[in-house]
Structure formats: structure tokens, C-alpha cells
Design goal:
This protein is mainly alpha-helical. The chain has two domains: 107 residues, Orthogonal Bundle (Rna Polymerase Sigma Factor, Chain: A), CATH 1.10.1740; 134 residues, Butyryl-CoA Dehydrogenase, subunit A, domain 3. The chain is built from eleven helices and no strands.
Length: 257
């Protein structure tokens, strides 16, 4: 099974780097040294841009706007301005990382309206047959004209699901045997693609919480702060997303409970 150790370690290292940059950014801002301030922020932006790209790509694929209307760089440019103008609002370096994601989410929320989701999919997930699942996967991987979507067409279409594993979905001790069986019967690529497809069809709030928890390795309390939700709301959204993905995997691949 693919492990998450190096991935999680990198996320933790990135968070430490962001926090450690805070005092230097404050000093550069106080000195009015905007060029060096922006140069340091630039070192933070690649990871943030990946997150932004994933959010925009989902909205594009859902047809909420064309792929040429908004680019990740548009959000990043605005984020530079937001950081420079408002960094003094952060009271402590340990808060800078969450503040950064909160401001990023606010910018995304301004252009990504809470979308209509596929209610039929949501309500009938127990009833889909394997051929129906396979057809959905094929449709998910193509554009409206039936052509396969290439990664370069949406900057980095694969970003949001390349690291999804069964450990993101099955977390209880009594599910270990089930994880082993699924892992034996299904390739890592199939698992990644399936999870991405199911997430694509879920409500934005549910998908966003799942991604912040798994892709960004944020705690539930932190996600609640970023999204202005209660902890209970975030827990419910995450649990519902996991349950839906579990059911879909079990049904699609005919795995006995």
C-alpha cells in the first residue's frame, strides 16, 4: 500500500516554513521593503497555488466558468496584495499558516459560488451498478465533446487526487482487513481516480472539508476556523464524505462487508 509518510512530512515542513517566515515578513513590511517582502512570499506560493488550482479546476470541470476566465495566477496575485496589506492582522506566527488559507479561501469563495450538486447521484449512490460506475468514470475523464482531458489543459488537473489513498477513507481499526482486500484487488491509480470522481459530485462544502483535512493535513478545529463553520459542522461534513466514498468503493468493486 502507498504510504503517506513523506507526503505528510512535506506538509509539516511547509507549515513550519510559513510560520518561520512570519517575523521576517513583518520586519520587511515595517521597513517598507516590498520587493524583498514579495520575494519571500513567492517562496510560499507554489504550495498555495496547487491548492488554488485544484479548487478552480473542479469549478471549471463543473461548468461554472470557462477555463480561460480565471487562472490560479489571478488568485495568487490578489493574495500577494492581501498579505502585504493585512499581515499585521495576524497576532502570532503560529496563526499565519491558517490565516493564509483563510484568506485564500475567501478569495476563492468570491468567484466560486456554492454550486448545485448532483442530487440524483447523492441520493442513489447505493444503487449504481459497476457498469454505471465505469461509465461515470469515463465521463469524468472527458470534456463535453468526448475528448480525454489532458493535465496541461487544466494546469494540474490531477493535483487534488494524486495522493488520495484508502487511509483517507477507511480510518477505523476494524476496517484494516477491508483496506487490505481493496488494496489487493484494486490499483492505486483506480483508487485515486475513483475518490476524485466521487468528490467531484459532492457538495462544495463537503469536498472542501475533505480536501483541507487530507490534502492540506489541517485539523478539524483549524478547518472550522478557515471556513467559519462550527467544529460539529466540519466533523459531519468530513464523516459524510468518507461514508459516501466508502459505500461507492464497496458497491463499485463488489467488495463484501
Amino acid at each position: 500500500m502507498q504510504t503517506d509518510i513523506s507526503y505528510y512530512s512535506n506538509k509539516k515542513e511547509f507549515r513550519v516554513f510559513v510560520s518561520d517566515s512570519f517575523q521576517d515578513l513583518i520586519q520587511l513590511k515595517n521597513e517598507g521593503d516590498e520587493p524583498n517582502f514579495n520575494a519571500l512570499v513567492l517562496k510560499i506560493m507554489p504550495e498555495i497555488k496547487k491548492y488554488v488550482t485544484g479548487q478552480l479546476n473542479t469549478a471549471i470541470k463543473k461548468g461554472h466558468f470557462s477555463k480561460n476566465k480565471f487562472k490560479a495566477d489571478d488568485i495568487i496575485d490578489q493574495l500577494f496584495i492581501t498579505i502585504y496589506d493585512n499581515i499585521e492582522d495576524v497576532k502570532h506566527e503560529k496563526d499565519f499558516y491558517l490565516w493564509l488559507f483563510k484568506k485564500t479561501n475567501e478569495l476563492l469563495d468570491d468567484i466560486i459560488v456554492e454550486e448545485e450538486f448532483d442530487e440524483f447521484f447523492f441520493k442513489n449512490i447505493d444503487d449504481y451498478s459497476k457498469p454505471e460506475w465505469d461509465e461515470m468514470q469515463e465521463n469524468y475523464s472527458t470534456d463535453g465533446g468526448g475528448d480525454l482531458l489532458m493535465i496541461e489543459e487544466l494546469d494540474d488537473m490531477s493535483y487534488n487526487h494524486n495522493d488520495y489513498t484508502l487511509n483517507h477513507v477507511f480510518v477505523e481499526d476494524n476496517q484494516k482487513a477491508l483496506i487490505e482486500k481493496i488494496d489487493k484487488d484494486i490499483s492505486a491509480e483506480e483508487i485515486q481516480n475513483h475518490i476524485a470522481m466521487v468528490l467531484h459530485n459532492l457538495p462544495y462544502s463537503m469536498r472542501n472539508v475533505f480536501e483541507l483535512f487530507n490534502s492540506q493535513q489541517l485539523e478539524l478545529e483549524e478547518i472550522a476556523q478557515i471556513r467559519n463553520n462550527t467544529l460539529e459542522e466540519v466533523e459531519q461534513l468530513l464523516n459524510e464524505a468518507k461514508k459516501i466514498i466508502q459505500v461507492s468503493l464497496l458497491n463499485r468493486y463488489s467488495i463484501d462487508n
